[in-house]
Amino acid sequence: MECLCCFLGFLLLAARLPLDAAKRFHEVLSNERTSGYIREHNQLKGWSSDENDWNEELYPVWKRGDPRWKNSWKGGHVQVVLTSDSPALVGSNITFMVKLAFPRCQKEDADGSIVYEKNCRNETGPSPDPYVYNWTAWTEDGDWGNGTNQSHHVFPDGRPFPHHHGWRKMNFVYMFHTLGQYFQKLGRCSLSVSINTTNMTLGPQLMEVTVYRRHRRSYVPMAKVKTVYVVTDQIPISVNMSQKNNRNSSDEIFLRDLPITFNVLIHDPSHFLNESAIHYKWNFGDGSGLFVTNNHTLNHTYVLNGTYSFNLTVQTAVPGPCPPPTPRPPKPTLSSPTILKSYSNSLVPAGDNPLELWETPGEDCQINRYGYFKATVTIVDGILEVNIIQMTSVQIPPPQPDSSLMDFVVTCHGTIPTEVCTVISDPTCQIAQGTFCNPVDVGDMCLLTVRRAFNGSGTYCMNLTLGDNASLALTSTLVSIPGRDSGSPSRMVNGVLVSVGCVAILVTVIALLVYKKHKEYKPVENSTGIKGKGLNVFLNHAKAKFFSGSQEKDPLLRNQPGSL
Questions:
Q1: What separation in angstroms does the CA of 39 have from each of 33, 447, 482?
Q2: First and final C-alpha spacing in the chain
Q3: Most buried pick, 188, 281, 495, 507, via CB within 10 A?
Q4: Interacting residues of 357 by C-beta distance below 8 A, sequence separation 6+
Q5: What pLDDT, in 10s, does the model give residues 311-348?
Q6: Which CATH architecture has domain 18-34+41-140+153-231?
Q7: What is the distance between the alpha carbons of residues 199 and 179, in angstroms, rounded to a whole number?
Q8: pTM of this prediction?
Q9: At 183, is the secondary structure helix, strand, or coil?
Q10: CATH superfamily, region 237-321+365-380
Q11: CA nearest neighbour of 384 among 407, 361, 416, 352
């Protein structure tokens, strides 16, 4: 009898072996499920239950720490980067992006094969074979699509690959797993998958991705990666706050008497709210009241210093499933006149009650969705305005340097600045040539003179800022520096004086030579020598030009007083 029981037990064990040996998708794809896992998720469109069997013959399963992982990719380890555009408003689409990062010097070519990059050296040096994986050659050999045996062109659940255009160049199998369901896709080194969140569970969820690469007539696991995403019933919003002259908007400290720009950013990458009317309700916490607008940008000015808490509520209506209808009130009878009176104002004709429309199969309702934002801002005094009221060129005594000095008289309104900075750039104010900053001490009135040097002539753009701990006020101006070449008045005068001196010396030398040659003075009119006449005419013209006054003072006149 004991032997019979053992034999029956052996038969039962043998009968259970195939069931135990067949792995399920959740056993392969997920490491997060506990023994008390309960499936309470709605069906995602296009996804399958992870209770399906996994084809371990084509897609082997390696546990963590298996030594085969070290050889899963030639030349190193492939990193898998998984991102999403989470958070997603329920009803919108959420997209997951997967990208493979190959080892150094490896890339995917246009045919889907993995090749070594040209002129790239890794730790092992250049490879004589240009291919890491020449999957194109495998296709030509009949291992991928041209052969008669197509049994290996299937996903782990046995479904065949979709034979769309270019599918033979897709050599990676991606398995997405979330909410007890999986989605399988054939792709290249990067791909994306979008899911509609209408039936998804609210809150943070886990997405896991397992990647296989093909190897002849089977597949090799490459890597696993996971990320957390969020599905919410509140509109994901953020607010950017900016203000002119504010030194640092990120610290939420702003200036009094200057408008603050509030710009609402709605996170809606799938454009789910494009056709919805959106309303913004602002309360700035300063007693100015409630502001309601349909514009995502609003300016507000705080007129008193202090700390304020402001609130923003964003409201919109989106299509969604209709809630179950509420019970209709009982029909009044003649024996209950009080009931008839209380319901007489709420009864509506059949078909006019919007709740009745919700019972129509396949028809959506408009559901109000809200988004909330709260922040605290601190309002302080600051520099509100800065102006350049005068520009003056500074005269530099000789020898003059190549640079020119300019004085700028600057005034400001608001608090007293503690520093001044200037940025000198080209006339377009795009290419900076120099930045200079100095501490300032201007007392109780904001009036100061800033001196700056400019290298060479031309037109410059100068940005001038006055700053303190909380503010930074800016003004700009164009500065024109004239040239200092032949057109410079001081250099022109010097040049004329030098020229006159040289001519005077030349005339004196010639006059001395003539005097020595001709001992006696001969009047010009009695001279018959053409050469002498020409020389005397030249001297007379020269003297008349450079030595004004009576000729009686000419030292060449021997018989006049003061002669040489």
A1: 11, 74, 82
A2: 163
A3: 507
A4: 322, 363, 365
A5: 999 999 998 777 777 666 665 554 433 332 333 333 23
A6: Sandwich (2.60)
A7: 11
A8: 0.69
A9: strand
A10: Immunoglobulins (2.60.40.10)
A11: 416
